[in-house]
Amino acid sequence: MRAIVAIAANTFREAIRDRILYLFLGFAVVLLVGSKLFGMLTVGDETRIIKDLGLVAIQFFSMLIAVMMSLLLISREVDSRTVFNILAKPVRRWQFLLGKYLGLVAVVAVNLTLMTLLLVVVVWVYQHELDFMLFFAGAMTMLEMAVLAAFATLFAVLTRPILGSLMTLAVFVVGHMSEDLWLLTRQLPGAFARAVIATAYYLLPNLERFDFHTEIVHDLPIPAAAVVWAYVYALVIIVLVLYLANLRFRRKDLM
Amino acid sequence: MADIQLEVRDLRKTFRPGLFESDVEVLKGLSFEVRRGEIFGFLGPNGAGKTTTIKAITEIIFPDSGSIRVCGLPHTDLEAKRRLGFMTESPYIYRHLTGREFLRFCGELLGMQRSGLEERISGVLDEVAMDALADRKMGAYSKGMLQRLALAQALLGEPDLLVLDEPLSGLDPVGRRDVRDIILQQAAAGTTVFFSSHIIPDVETICDRVAIIVDGRVRAVGSVAELMSDEAEWSEATFTGAVPADLRTPLLASHVGSDASWARVSSAHRDALIQELADRGARLVSLNPVRSNLEDLLMRHYEGMGS
């Protein structure tokens, strides 16, 4: 356990010292400039627009961190051969992978917390009351990012960094089009094309399950079952994807 | 407690680079043993399989077949890994960490207790003379400093077996002497040291035993004295009044200088050369016996790679 925590802490420290949290500043600029701009363009419902913009920006910047870090996650350790030093010590390969994964999740979590806090403050400035549902939205986005980070870890051991990042990005994009994929399987004429799209539908996660933006922005009720189901769904995918990553990594020759 | 601290048996490894490239068989049934308390040199040219063997010992790559035991345990056992200290060739670093943070990280990976860790870190930093530089970022270290810090992390867990991949390469003479001294101190304290190198004088100076590895196989194992016992002695003669090309005595090498000629002859033909030079009225200026050294032995093995 100590080895996992040490590797996670080192991954986290490396990302922080690489100034990856500067992305938070990007979010702050988007949020503050965007809210001012939309505040001028819209009449009445500007808080809703700020919330909507803020939640999408949080999701986007968190995804950006996961994708960027998947570039560095394993490959930097392997390319710079620091991984040799780790694996020669009493550390199992799955512990290394899990440590790297948790380090990535921790970086996303810190950034996401800062962004959510900023959004809550901005909304408070406009609305003069604290919207605690924004914290809930942040938690659900974190769940989504934990799933995405698992895929980033899998791709980091499967392929080269750039391709791994592109694949992580593809999971994010396609994961938000899951419902469309399902509709497509019913409308496509060819059986082969239908089979390909259906395979993608079943293989890739449905990230829309973690998206409660509409309900939060428009003060709609959120079914508890949907939230519980989202947690179970995320947990199953994370365990499965990390298991696959370990399956590939545990006997991989590192050159 | 095992008397054999490292046992490698019939190790084989073939790399398969890809569909359109041919397989590369790097280790071809490599076997050797390292005894408790000795400094064991692993000597061979680039590409002989030294680093591949070390990567197999440290579980960075997986051999196709064969077995490795560290301190009497399978090398994959966590206890075996705890008792092994490893330093990579050209130590690679976390640029974002200071030397002390790096050692703390290594101590946590080794599962060392927090209470004694800081004290142990100070101890190894002192041992490798890096205590004054320990709070600087590793990105600012010179190669020699990195090498010493890498050695410090290998020593941190007080290992029974030290595995060092080319610990002396790329260092200036002072750095080499420092690292050599640390290896000797460790051996004196009872640690078994296994290190690969292609720097022959260092191996000759500090190793109790040596394995010569060529083309993925161990060609010879023994102390330097044992390995050299079968090696021929030569004599080198300097003379005037005759040219080597005219001599009937078989020469191993020769050179015609402006003042005198020089020839190398095997011990068996030394007397014949002296006699022939006398018969020709040539003057023998000097005749020195020369014993072949480890470098000559290695060169013979290297040159025989294709045979």
Summarize this entry quickly.
The complex is a heterodimer of chains A (255) and B (307). Chain A is mostly helical.
Note the topology.
The complex is a heterodimer of chains A (255) and B (307).
Chain A: H1 2-17, H2 23-41, H3 46-72, H4 75-79, H5 82-87, H6 93-127, H7 133-158, H8 161-175, H9 178-187, H10 191-203, H11 213-217, H12 224-249
Helix pairs in contact in A: 1-6, 2-3, 2-6, 3-6, 3-7, 3-8, 6-7, 6-12, 7-8, 7-12, 9-10
Chain B: E1 4-15, E2 24-35, E3 39-43, H1 50-57, E4 65-70, E5 73-74, H2 78-82, E6 84-87, H3 99-109, H4 114-127, H5 143-156, E7 161-165, H6 173-188, E8 192-197, H7 200-206, E9 209-214, E10 217-222, H8 224-229, E11 233-240, E12 253-256, E13 261-266, H9 270-279, E14 283-291, H10 294-303
Parallel strand pairs in B: 3-8, 3-9, 6-7, 7-8
Antiparallel strand pairs in B: 1-2, 1-4, 4-5, 9-10, 11-13, 11-14, 12-13
Fill in the keyword field for this structure.
A: 255 residues, 12 helices, B: 307 residues, alpha/beta, Rossmann fold, 2 domains, four-stranded antiparallel β-sheet, 33% helix, elongated
Structural description of this entry:
- The complex is a heterodimer of chains A (255) and B (307).
- In chain A, 80% of the residues lie in helices and 0% in strands.
- Chain A is built from 12 helices and no strands.
- In chain A, α2 packs parallel to α6, α3 runs antiparallel to α8 and α9 (178-187) packs antiparallel against α10.
- The two termini of chain A are 27 Å apart.
- The mean pLDDT of chain A is 86.
- Chain B is α/β, with parallel strands linked by helices.
- Chain B contains 10 helices and 14 strands.
- In chain B, α6 (173-188) links the parallel β7 and β8 (192-197).
- In chain B, α3 (99-109) packs across α4, α3 (99-109) packs parallel to α5 and α4 crosses α5 (143-156).
- The longest helix of chain B is centred in the middle third of the chain and has 16 residues, at 173-188.
- Classes of the chains: A mainly alpha (255), B alpha/beta (307).
- The interface between A and B is medium-sized, with 27 and 29 residues.
